[in-house]
Amino acid sequence: MQLSLVDRTILVTGGGSGIGKGVAAAVVASGGNAMLVGRNADKLATAVEEIGAAAGEGAGEVRYEPADVTNEDEVAHVVDAAAAWHGRLHGVVHSAGGSLTIGPLTQVDSEGWRNTVDLNVNGTMYVLKHSAREMVRGGGGSFVGISSIASSNTHRWFAAYGPSKAALDHLMMLAADELGPSWVRVNGIRPGLIRTDMVAPILDSPAISADYASCTPLPRPGEVTDVANAAVFLLSDAAEWITGQVLNVDGGHGLRRGPDMSSMLEPVFGADGLRGAVS
């Protein structure tokens, strides 16, 4: 089965690092043209240089456009730029996201909660809204939203992250239902614990990493390439009759429970704090 993206233009948000950067590299290696989007122009430029240097024969092109996905005007601009690059936008991998607060719900920082919801929910909606318009005009396409296992399995003390990623999952299904008649496919990927700079403190913690392993039938951390391979599949013609799905790429972790982060958070909030007590 050939997963070719030759002559296709793919917009990748959160493309400066982690999963987004890995997806962009896989798109280029599959012959596609990847436009990286993120807030940090320096990180994007470095990612473009590294992806370009590693690209082999038959690889696509890569470039970047800085933008904040929580700013709708900036999102509209980069979508227009991606569509104009080679005349059409064929797909999107929306990887921009994260969490700006962590801790017990009774002590959660409300501004951090709002900002996380803005990033993960509103940012997703802006990218989907404007890119779907272009893909409908072009006769179809594929949108892949990067979610999280925290959307389906409770991750205690993750605050807004899990609920906002659950909203992303529902948005993928809603959009798939609406956009199917225009041949725009919309799917999501729920990564488990993926080895990136963001999760380095978890992997460096013997207690937490061991807990993750005990909850994962395939007991190793995921790699960025695991998610990138799934994303390229969903972008490709090999998935042309797949829409409205959320694919777990988690080593089977979704079959069990969320992680126990108490060893990391109890020193900060106290045992009573983790059960919701506020002094």
Automatic annotation (TrEMBL):
Q: Which Pfam families match?
A: adh_short_C2
Q: Where is the Ketoreductase domain?
A: 8-197
Output the superkingdom of the source species.
Bacteria
Q: What is this protein called?
A: Short-chain dehydrogenase
The terms under GO molecular function for this entry are: oxidoreductase activity
Entry's family note: Belongs to the short-chain dehydrogenases/reductases (SDR) family.
Q: Keyword set for this entry? A: Oxidoreductase
Indicate whether Transmembrane helix appears among the record's keywords.
Answer: no
